[in-house]
Amino acid sequence: MSVLxxxxxxxxxLGLLDEGMEWLDFRIFKGQRASSTLQTETHRLLxxxxxxxxxxxxxxxxxxxxxYTGLRLSEGFSDVTSFFNIPxxxxxxxxxxxxxxxxxxxxxxxxxxxxYFFYEWxxxxxxxxxxxxxxxxxxxxxxxxxxxxSLDEKLRPFTTHAISTSxxxxxxxxVIFENVLGKNFKRxxxxxxxxxxxxxxxx
Length: 203
Prior knowledge:
The protein is α/β, with parallel strands linked by helices. It contains six helices and ten strands. The strands form two sheets. A five-stranded mixed β-sheet has the order 3-2-1-4-5, with helices on both faces. Strands 8-7-6-9-10 form a five-stranded mixed β-sheet. Helix 1 packs across helix 2 (68-82). The termini are far apart.
């Protein structure tokens, strides 16, 4: 039985794990239309390993932080798989460093509309903030980013030595997914802004 991983918070990332929680494959799709990529590439991934939906033990998704439209793709997919009695779990991107044993740091990403998301933690205690450009501050401890696609020129001065949590995920699947499944993580979707704010018309 395999575990399917989906991250649609920025680019689409798909992964297939074996019973030992090691990657059979890990694929990132950049600059493509996410709504058409997810279903097509999930089908291709399963087919490449002679798997069908019924062979999945579980689906695990990234619950954010991210944008409403992107996160709804993986949410909708997990809703569909639940009809097949396939359980699902979800976790936040900024939890990845802590699950790999990093005690202090800052996870940052762009949130558009001139805003940036910062999550700082130390020894298990964390705080999230949505900051405007004028309020950007030097991050504390080791800096983490989702990936290069989640940056812009305003953030690059802070991310010279940043570590990608996408890379951490690819390199440490066993410790991360044993943590998520063992503790049965089911995080609520974490949108940068409420849908009514995300889609409001500019005056």
